[in-house]
Write a structure and sequence with these properties.
single chain; alpha/beta; FAD/NAD(P)-binding domain; 5-stranded parallel beta sheet; 4-stranded antiparallel beta sheet; 31% helix; elongated
Length: 234
């Protein structure tokens, strides 16, 4: 289990046939199942995954690629270097905007993304400005494909593990003791995206090594305790 469930976008038309998640798009590209020569592509999101999608679409021969992000350039979570490279390749960034609806035809295929302009309000508790919709600011970007690159949520831990004893955080990740990476269920350890949330592979590798070391300490101490019990009984 991990954090590979693409976040949903609860707007009208989001279930149209050619509105896809970033993961589905990138997998289809790697498999050679998805070609976009001459297509108009709109990517929703502002992280590194969104940058992977826009640059991949450009290299596939899309005639236009727009990236819609609800905050401004300075607040974009993705790499600024990736943004600059995407712009060099012809990607058009639409700052401070968010989808209002996916417009489709009778065949349930998207033909455009209707967006609303965003005003950045006062900073919240984390210091980030709160996005607020500007009423009456709607506009449409024509599209043959819309890609949702909004980040990833953890998978359903209870359903996948069959255990309801594993404590979760408010974000749905596993709650652990960071001193030894043990979950709320004694003897069960966790590491990687199911603990951190969607992150980099290198962090998962690092966490996995730390978890292995913690498990080794746990098993050794358990073995020592059992040995002492046997000796005490002799």
């Amino acid at each position: 289990m991990g954090a590979q469930s693409g976040r949903a976008l609860p707007v009208e038309g989001a279930e149209a046939g050619n509105v896809v998640t970033a993961t589905a798009f990138l997998k289809a590209f790697n498999d050679g199942r998805m070609q976009h020569v001459g297509k108009r592509v709109v990517v929703i999101g502002g992280g590194d995954t969104a940058m992977d999608c826009v640059r991949t679409a450009v290299r596939q021969g899309a005639i236009s690629v727009h990236c819609v992000y609800r905050r401004d350039r300075g607040n974009m979570p993705g790499s600024q270097r990736e943004v600059a490279h995407a712009e060099e390749e012809g990607v058009q960034f639409v700052w401070q905007a968010q989808p209002e609806a996916f417009l489709g035809n009778a065949d349930n295929r998207v033909t455009g993304v209707r967006c609303q302009r965003i005003h950045l309000g006062l900073p919240d508790a984390t210091g980030r400005q709160t996005p607020r919709v500007i009423e009456g600011s709607s506009f449409t970007i024509e599209a043959d494909l819309a890609i949702k690159a909004l980040g990833f949520d953890p998978e359903d831990v209870s359903a996948m593990s069959g255990s309801k004893d594993l404590a979760l955080t408010n974000w749905g990740t596993l709650k652990i003791d960071w001193r030894n990476l043990m979950t709320s269920q004694h003897g069960v350890f966790a590491a990687g995206d199911i603990v951190r949330g969607a992150s980099l592979v290198v962090w998962a590798i690092r966490d996995g090594r730390d978890a292995a070391a913690a498990i080794d300490v746990y098993l050794r101490s358990k073995q020592d305790a059992e040995s002492r019990q046997v000796k005490a009984a002799e």
